[in-house]
From TrEMBL:
All copies of domain NAD-dependent epimerase/dehydratase, residue ranges: 8-245
SUPFAM superfamilies given in the database record: NAD(P)-binding Rossmann-fold domains
Superkingdom: Eukaryota
Molecular function per GO: oxidoreductase activity, acting on the CH-OH group of donors, NAD or NADP as acceptor
Protein name: Cinnamoyl-CoA reductase 2
Pfam families assigned to the protein according to its UniProt record, in alphabetical order: Epimerase
Alphabetically ordered keywords of this record: NADP, Oxidoreductase
Length: 319
């Protein structure tokens, strides 16, 4: 039997990204302290079906806004993956309370608890939203990890999720500098791929809409996507590689909406796809070169939409 790799904590365990991360961690012989907010809720049932879950997965009840609950989950861990954050699918009535506060104060709580428990490294799931909202970045230059979203610009454009992720990541770096905590951040673009959890997460919705809604016209946007399984691997890689440092943009493929629809149509001709596309001029380009240099690779583009559709079908979301 392979040796256990140590105990790590994953926050927001029931979510789309965290569920895949936990599945991969268990398969690599980690013992996982996984935080959930409502223990016993069927939305977490899938976690206990993962291989090795019965021996190596321990669920902790924790809200990231409640320091002592976070502390109990982090205690005894050598690594922490901070994944939990509100990811709204629509505009929210009270952004401060519903998005910003949990993202920012929640992250501070997780970092404080990690420092107190002498955790060796924290991997924080930030977002490309904390990178791309930067109107002063030169238009012809590919965005790398030096590019930060402009918080004032996010506020002015009422982009509360982008604001919250940017503020949370920058606060996390301030905390790490002050305290000496070993922190790595990973900034994924739009995450797609098969879902393990029984409920729909926000980033899955745009793909489902392309399959189901039969829209008259959609914008032919350039989408920067990454597969959820490749995100899980990126998080583990940045945790395990001693030389990992700083931020890592995590993106795999650029695809225009129309090409994506054509690809899906050639495999699944009978879904209710958009009928027309209007051209838009996308200027943002992102690079994951730094993550690739660390040893990350990603699956071919086609696997992600195909495996996504298969998982939506199985879960009944395409009926
Ligand atoms: N999906 C993407 O395209 C994408 C792209 C870039 C970055 N990210 C980042 O990846 C992370 C995971 O996103 P996801 O797509 O997996 O979203 P998700 O499925 O909605 O998962 C978010 C998780 O955060 C938890 N959470 C929210 N507020 C919490 C709180 N106060 N205390 C404890 N847990 C809380 C939720 O717990 P409950 O289940 O209890 O509600 C849920 O498990 C987030 O940090 C997100 O910003 C996602």
């Amino acid at each position: 039997m392979a040796a256990e790799k140590g105990i790590v904590c994953v926050t927001g365990a029931g979510g789309f990204v965290a569920s895949w991360l936990i599945k991969h961690l268990l398969s690599k012989n980690y013992v996982v302290h996984a935080t959930v907010r409502q223990p016993g809720d069927p939305k977490y049932a899938h976690l206990s079906t993962f291989e090795k879950a019965s021996e190596n997965l321990r669920l902790f009840t924790a809200d990231i806004l409640d320091y002592s609950s976070v502390q109990s989950a982090v205690e005894g861990c050598i690594g922490v993956f901070h994944v939990a954050s509100p990811v709204p699918s629509t505009t929210v009535a009270n952004p401060e309370e519903e998005v910003i506060e949990p993202a920012v104060s929640g992250t501070c709580n997780v970092l404080k608890a990690s420092l107190e428990s002498k955790v060796k490294r924290v991997v924080f799931v930030s977002s490309a939203s904390a990178v791309v909202m930067n109107p002063t970045w030169p238009k012809d230059q590919v965005m790398d990890e030096n590019c930060w979203s402009d918080k004032e610009y996010c506020r002015a454009t009422k982009n509360w999720y982008c604001y919250a992720k940017t503020e949370a990541e920058s606060e996390a770096w301030e905390f790490a500098k002050r305290s000496g905590l070993d922190l790595v951040t990973v900034c994924p673009t739009l995450v797609w791929g098969p879902i393990l959890q029984p409920t729909l997460n926000a980033s899955t919705l745009p793909l489902l809409r392309l399959l189901k809604e039969g829209l008259e016209t959609v914008e032919n946007k350039l989408r920067m996507i990454v597969d959820v399984r490749d995100v899980a691997e990126a998080l583990i890689l940045t945790y395990e590689k001693p030389e990992a440092e700083g931020r890592y943009i995590c993106t795999a493929h650029e695809v225009k909406t129309k090409s994506l629809v054509e690809m899906l149509k050639s495999i699944y001709p009978n879904y209710n796809y958009p009928k027309n596309f209007t051209e838009v001029h996308d200027q943002i380009r992102l690079s994951s070169e730094k993550l690739r240099r660390l040893g990350w690779s990603c699956r071919p583009l086609k696997e992600t939409p195909v495996d996504s559709v298969e998982s939506y079908r199985k879960a009944g979301f395409l009926d």
